[in-house]
Amino acid sequence: VTALDELDTPSVIVDLDVLERNISRMADRARAAGVRLRPHAKTHKVPELGRLQLAAGATGISLAKTGEAEVFAEAGFDDIFLAYPIVGAGKGRRLLALSDRLRLAVGVDSIEGAASLGSVFHAARRRIDVLLKVDCGYHRVGVAPERAVETARRLTDLPGIALRGIFTHAGHAYLAASPADIAAIAKQEGEILAATADLLRSEGLPVGEVSVGSTPTARVAMSVAGVTECRPGNYVYHDGSQVSLGTCEIEDCAMTVIATVVSVPAADRAVLDCGSKTLSSDPLRPRPGGHGGILGRTSRIESLSEEHGVVRVEPGETFRVGERVRVLPNHACVVSNLHDRIILARGDRVEGDWTVAARGRVR
Amino acid sequence: VTALDELDTPSVIVDLDVLERNISRMADRARAAGVRLRPHAKTHKVPELGRLQLAAGATGISLAKTGEAEVFAEAGFDDIFLAYPIVGAGKGRRLLALSDRLRLAVGVDSIEGAASLGSVFHAARRRIDVLLKVDCGYHRVGVAPERAVETARRLTDLPGIALRGIFTHAGHAYLAASPADIAAIAKQEGEILAATADLLRSEGLPVGEVSVGSTPTARVAMSVAGVTECRPGNYVYHDGSQVSLGTCEIEDCAMTVIATVVSVPAADRAVLDCGSKTLSSDPLRPRPGGHGGILGRTSRIESLSEEHGVVRVEPGETFRVGERVRVLPNHACVVSNLHDRIILARGDRVEGDWTVAARGRVR
Fold first, then answer.
1. Predicted local confidence at residue B16, as pLDDT
2. How far is B3 from A309, CA to CA, in rounded Å?
3. Cβ of B232: how many Cβ atoms within 10 Å?
4. Pairing state of beta strands B36-37 and B11-15?
5. What is the dihedral of CA B92, B98, B102, B107, to 10 degrees?
6. From the list A260, A282, A340, which residue is nearest B360 (CB)?
7. pLDDT of B87
């Protein structure tokens, strides 16, 4: 297969021209801001893509799960941060095995969680680097800034634990009403974390890394004085939600899905062969707005079942059975996780494919 | 690993006692109703599980995608119906290759779609069996009952096409407000399809199979006179939505997810290590109600991100970091599709695992 027209559907396509531009733009931004870039590879889960990020200047990668780290370590990545509160002796033992081969750190936000890892490392006369997660307003995980000193102090007292720094994630930016609101959230993300770092240092606690991250907030947050590292993930692909948030334009979206119209049961309804098992059922952010845009059309996927994408056909547009369309997913990170391989293209030419090697590594 | 306690999390568990009971109950119902049972294996995508269904009396299986049929054919299944409007010469060639090895039929709801398959089979001097999809009120795919005669007549005129019967799916039952409403929808599902079959026959059109299907509607729809086959899928596992719909009780749910509490950042919030990459973001049916129940608790997963299940902790309940819980997913069929393997258990004892062999076969 050398042309997109010949691919069976549904197929997930990544345009390499757009991907490369996204990678170099974010690397340039981090360089200009004077911060380290540690992209979150949960978006793509593809070692080959991670290597492009490193080649563009990233100093390491972020991941969420121990199993993802095992895949990337096996592929030769030697600097990994698990930006997630990893908990439990079982995971601790796997991390201990990994830590021989790479510079490793993990997120923590509780003494109990950190102790479950520290005890494993301590028994091996080792220490694991941790970054304390600070809640900058998302209210998912992380300690409130006012509790950071106490928690950090107790962390440094734990056997087997070495405090490398602090990190945060402003996930609430994905619900922001406007780009101005996102910028305000991003500024706060950077400022809260930098102020927390100052406070910890004034108490004699070691804070090497001050790490922020998310694609919508990266540009502003990484520019705040005191921030040392940024961890955006989605920017490699972008998606419909990033367009809606104003983070990028449609032409900055590297990932699309080629689908076939399999049914046109009514004038206002067409059905594509991509459902929630291809696109996921993640909603459009910041406001719900269907389950996928269709390039070149105003009609959108209005609802999904497992293998059906039901398009509400706007007046004046037509869909024919057998016709192929390109769908812009709402959320690229979860689409990656549904597919074993992605197809690489430049324009309409197929350039190869990549295995999504860390797909499904939820443990 | 011989006990569930020793499993790393998150892990998808299928209790074999419950699974076997679900399989035999549905088989008994079909036998009592005098219809063939052709379970939709998209729910589990596991050949070993499909063989249990056949052993209990199923006459064949249903699937949605050509790639799924290829996996099950390779595993020895010899009677497969693709209950989906398959479209395109590329898929037609793959179906032609399969049809040498098994009794195969596919769904159609358009002349264009059927012609794209028929031309491939006709060129090989073969015919492919098709079932015409009839819309019984779900308004997703399928022809309106009043258009069935005209479409069926044109189908029988197409080269390479053999009309085996008609089928429908009452997906709107998943939005029904009460068990009584589901029963009414199910009755209509059976009656509309049986009446359509009578009409086609009165016009001299061949209708061998009259096939209904869905777990909530199966019991009532399969009992309607004239129905010959039933295609429920979800019943092997059941899930939170089936409980909410009144289709089953919690103890009839064979699939659960073992998760670990990784963070308790506030008194009313706990975070599990299962997010949308483990549970999917499919909503609870028939009404939204969080993203997963927790066995033995009233607290539910209120929101998901990719690897976080955020629990709203109800007053009086507590969650501790490191504690393990059992989550009842909203929708088992999409959970299956996220995981390469599922763990088999009886009670707390691990009995082995199955590969989800047809996972991700969306093409």
1. 98
2. 41
3. 27
4. unpaired
5. -30
6. A340
7. 98
Distance from CA of B55 to the nearest CA of A (A): 27
Instruction: Retrieve residue A243's tokens.
Output: 């367009």
Task: State whether B281 and A277 contact (CB < 8 Å).
Answer: no
At A108, give phi and psi (nearest 5°): -140, 150
* Helix segments in B239-297, DSSP class H: 240-245, 276-279
Considering only the C-alpha atoms of chain A, give the largest distance between any 2 of them, rounded to a whole number of Å.
Answer: 70
Q: pLDDT tens, A253-273?
A: 999 999 999 999 999 999 999
Asked if A189 contacts A170 with a C-beta cutoff of 8 angstroms, the reply is yes
Cβ–Cβ gap A139/B269 under 8 Å: yes
Q: What is the pLDDT of residue B1?
A: 78
Concatenate the DSSP letters of all residues of A270-300 into one string: EEES--HHHH-SPPPSSS---S-EETT-S-E
Which residues are bridge partners to A161 per DSSP? A128
pLDDT of B210-223, one tens digit each? 999 999 999 999 99
Output the pLDDT for position B338: 98
Digit-coded pLDDT (tens) for A213-245? 999 999 999 999 999 999 999 999 999 999 999
H helices within chain A, ranges in order? Answer: 16-33, 47-55, 66-74, 89-99, 111-123, 148-157, 179-202, 218-221, 240-245, 276-279, 332-336
User: Using CA atoms, how far apart are residues B292 and B23, in angstroms rounded to an integer?
Assistant: 24
Q: So what's the pLDDT on residue B142? A: 98
Q: Which residues of B32-65 are buried (b: 16+ CB within 10 A; e: fewer)?
A: ebebbbbbbbbbbbbbebbebbbebebebbbbbb
Q: Which of B287, B317, B286 is nearest to B300 (CA)?
A: B317
